[in-house]
Amino acid sequence: MTTSSQSASALSDTASPAKYTSTKWARWLWWLVLAVLLVAAVAVGQHPRRGVDFRVYLTAAERFIEGTDLYRVSDGTMPFKYAPVTTPLFIPFSLLPPRLAVALWNVGSILALVAVARLTRRSPHGPGEAAPWAWAPALTTIALLPAFTFELFYGQVDVVMLLLVVVSALGAERGQVWRPGAAFAVAFLLKPPAALIGLFFLWRRHWRVIGATAVFGVVLSLPTLARYGWDGTLTQFQLWSETLARTTPPWVLSTNAQGLPTLLITLFHPGSVATPPSFAITLAQLVAITLFLAGVLWAKPGPADLLALCCLGVTLLSPLAWRANYVLAWPLVRAATEGRFRPSLTLVAVIAFIGTVFSDKGLGFDWSHDVLLMRPFALIYSGLLIAMLWQIRRQGAPLAMTHGDTFARLPRTLRGMRAP
Predict the structure, then answer these.
(1) Is pTM beyond 0.90 here?
(2) 385 is a domain residue
(3) Most exposed residue of 12, 56, 114, 385, measured as fewest CB within 10 angstroms of its CB?
(4) How many structural domains is the chain composed of?
(5) Over the stretch 200-214, which tens digit does the pLDDT of each residue have?
(6) What was the pLDDT predicted at 15?
(7) H-helix or E-strand spanning residue 409
């Protein structure tokens, strides 16, 4: 054995125990973060004034059982704003005490996060690729902790929807049809902006999954048709449309709105909190979608990164996006973290800083109001999107550092995905 090979062997023997120890500590941190979130999930559920968004679903489910209107002007600032056909999905929760229902939903959201973390693991690395960083899942969740806090505080559906999206994409890549079709149909019904994930199916030519999604959409409509009849169902859809038309424009330029369409409108109406006309909202959303599609076509991402980009796009391109919805950025933030590339880690640190500091508790009500009108969340996540698109265009996947501190890239697929 030569001197150089002996030295390499010695370095390998030294690095292996160190890598094992680092991986073990990373795993412990991951479970600690999950334990904290689980405690918060249960605690929030026991508070009578928490989980208000999820309680809206419960109220709608109760009205569905009664056969009364799901959408009422009397609901004030917390109306039911989701499609009528989603309501039967929440009937089982409406049969439980509200506090228990919220706690179970929040616990389910944390379990969904665990599943997402497992399903979004990259394939084993090959030549020119770096092994993903073991600390990434924990650090990604810590960076997005403010978003998860809102998710649990209000009892939102974003984490569950993220799991459904990931399950549908991976199922399609594994040659399945009906399971991914069902998952995607439910995700779309929970929040129609999830339709952007259709780009993944089109790009990867999963035509049968798109057909299966349509079939399940029809099947999921049957309970509503059975309960309200044809005319009653059309009435509920009309009331839903009127509710969205009444509540969306005042939201788009409020301090909470943090999507790219809001940012684009703000560029032409800086500091304005007036209600924008509907055509301006539609135009801003079309411009945002066009910019996103152009960026994706330019970067030509592999399937793992295409899925992560689409997950972020579901939130970023929506005029209704707000801070809690950015838990859908988890796969892309994970990609930025697990490469250990310093500029990407800096972006992740800025995301964590903005989420923690730019809030009522961090800056106080008046300052946070003024800062949020600058749309910092839309800006930083747009910056993350641009940075990742540039890296993917340059290397085919996000840039990564090997354990020898040389430049490489992450694997282009998740485990179970077909090669690009």
Answers:
(1) yes
(2) yes
(3) 12
(4) 1
(5) 999 999 999 999 999
(6) 47
(7) strand 407-409
